[in-house]
């Protein structure tokens, strides 16, 4: 029964990851067709900053509110349903906005007015989707942690959620790269201003697919708790971490209290920020497109990208299956350290891979597959264990890890172009900076391994050795 609940909760990440891929792969083309060259770049930069900005601004507050005595009485299913409803509303607005007529030749004033309506409809829908994604991801990760009491079940629950999220990103990229109208599929969704050969038609089809995924995920995630009638998914009505000092808890936020009382959590949050910054450098440099388009795949770039993404998913499966055993053997920080070193090595190899054969390029890109899955598993396992060891609110630690992921995106948004021009104007320099962040994160993990004294993140074998020595 618990395995079924884990699968139901993990299914909630599928539409979120699907929409995230559409956001990065398909929105730029649609916005360019809808707004023209003059408004395109300003709108695109606004949408690039919107998602991480909304998440970073709201996650600490959401975590503190859900952990507080006043907000803890609400059921987690209510937050999930509210988030999924906001997601559904945003998707419906995007489907409708894609059919706004903007090709009225000879009517410049009316065309500009319609373009403005479409632009702000996309922005409003993006705000709804951003808020919904932030809320749903936080609740789902808390539910995944709350389902499991043992260490092994916690790892498997988080890993299942990360695998489904990774698969959702893969499906979203495949859908964004598919030209539904040219293939003659779903032509019934075409409108007066959205013809089958237009980019807006593909967006409408993909949003309709994501809407189906969202409704399925909402029905599964919001009802999964009925499998265990004795334990409803209800956030704790009182915060045990502050039960002896309620006045102090109200004066300081739960996040601040947790960070001040546990240096290990501070190390985990810092390592998470550096790891996410290293991974986001790969996305910021647009490495997949740049590497695969270097005179090796003339006219076959789309097919090469599909093969690379497919191999990434295939490589991820055995790593995900072996991660629980690795974490039991080497500990959470040990696996995290190895992941950072692997990421740094792959990023530093980018300069040599650009002139390699197509097979080497595909193999190199495939090795990146396990990295996002591990980064969406290990940090959350670490903060969950440490919060439970100190009777602290688990949801606050999860919210902090999600927030530093958004912070990494914001930092790259503001500093990526300046770093690129300052360090020579090449994408390799951004990857080198990412590799430095990964090495720094590995150093933090090694320090955490050496200084951890409460055995919350140590491997069982090391714990036995330390107990035998004493």
Structure description:
This protein is mostly helical and 470 residues long. The protein has 20 helices and no strands. It has helices at residues 2-11, 13-25, 27-67, 76-97, 108-147, 151-176, 199-221, 246-251, 254-261, 263-284, 287-292, 301-330, 332-348, 350-353, 358-366, 370-375, 378-389, 394-422, 427-451, 460-469. The longest helix is centred in the N-terminal third of the chain and has 41 residues, at 27-67.
Q: Which key features would you list for this structure?
A:
single chain, 470 residues, mainly alpha, Growth Hormone, Chain: A, 2 domains, globular
Q: How many strands in all?
A: 0
The CATH architecture classification of the largest domain is Up-down Bundle
Helix content: over 70%
So what's the oligomer here? single chain
CATH topology name of the largest domain, in short, is Growth Hormone, Chain: A
- Poorly predicted sequence stretches spanning 5 or more consecutive residues: 70-74, 102-106, 227-252, 292-299
**What's the shape?**
globular
Structural class comes to mainly alpha
Average of per-residue pLDDT values? 77
Number of helices: 20
The CATH superfamily of the largest domain bears the name MFS general substrate transporter like domains
Task: Give the biggest sheet.
Answer: none
Order of helices and strands: HHHHHHHHHHHHHHHHHHHH
């Amino acid at each position: 029964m618990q395995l079924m609940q884990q699968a139901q909760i993990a299914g909630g990440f599928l539409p979120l990851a699907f929409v995230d891929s559409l956001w990065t792969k398909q929105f730029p083309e649609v916005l360019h067709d809808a707004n023209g060259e003059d408004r395109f770049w300003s709108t695109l930069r606004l949408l690039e900053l919107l998602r991480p900005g909304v998440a970073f601004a709201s996650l600490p507050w959401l975590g503190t509110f859900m952990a507080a005595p006043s907000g803890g009485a609400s059921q987690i299913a209510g937050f999930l349903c509210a988030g999924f409803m906001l997601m559904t509303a945003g998707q419906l607005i995007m489907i409708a906005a894609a059919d706004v007529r903007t090709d009225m030749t000879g009517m410049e004033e009316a065309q500009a007015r319609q373009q403005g309506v479409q632009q702000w409809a996309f922005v409003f829908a993006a705000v709804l989707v951003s808020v919904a994604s932030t809320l749903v991801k936080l609740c789902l990760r808390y539910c995944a942690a709350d389902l499991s009491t043992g260490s092994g079940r916690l790892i498997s629950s988080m890993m299942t959620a990360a695998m489904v999220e990774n698969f959702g990103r893969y499906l979203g990229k495949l859908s964004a790269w598919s030209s539904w109208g040219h293939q003659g599929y779903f032509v019934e969704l075409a409108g007066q201003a959205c013809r089958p050969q237009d980019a807006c038609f593909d967006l409408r089809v993909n949003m309709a697919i994501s809407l189906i995924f969202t409704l399925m995920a909402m029905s599964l995630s919001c009802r999964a708790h009925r499998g265990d009638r004795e334990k409803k998914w209800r956030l704790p009505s009182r915060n045990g971490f502050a039960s002896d000092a309620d006045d102090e808890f109200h004066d300081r936020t739960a996040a601040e209290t947790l960070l001040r009382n546990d240096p290990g959590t501070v190390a985990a949050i810092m390592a998470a920020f550096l790891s996410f910054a290293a991974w986001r450098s790969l996305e910021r440099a647009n490495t997949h497109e740049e590497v695969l388009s270097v005179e090796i795949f003339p006219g076959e770039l789309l097919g090469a990208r599909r093969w690379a993404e497919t191999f990434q998913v295939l490589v991820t499966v055995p790593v995900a299956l072996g991660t629980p055993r690795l974490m039991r053997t080497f500990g959470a920080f040990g696996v995290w350290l190895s992941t950072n070193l692997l990421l740094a090595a792959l990023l530093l190899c980018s300069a040599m891979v650009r002139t390699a054969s197509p097979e080497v390029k595909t193999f190199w890109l495939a090795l990146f597959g396990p990295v996002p899955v591990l980064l969406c598993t290990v940090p959350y396992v670490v903060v969950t264990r440490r919060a439970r060891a100190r009777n602290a609110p688990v949801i606050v630690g999860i919210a902090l890890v999600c927030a530093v992921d958004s912070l990494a995106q914001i930092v790259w948004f503001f500093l990526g172009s300046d770093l690129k021009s300052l360090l020579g104007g090449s994408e390799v320099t951004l990857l080198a900076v990412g590799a430095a962040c990964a090495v720094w994160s590995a150093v933090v993990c090694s320090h955490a391994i050496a200084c951890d004294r409460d055995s919350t993140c140590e491997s069982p074998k090391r714990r036995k050795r330390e107990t035998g020595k004493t």
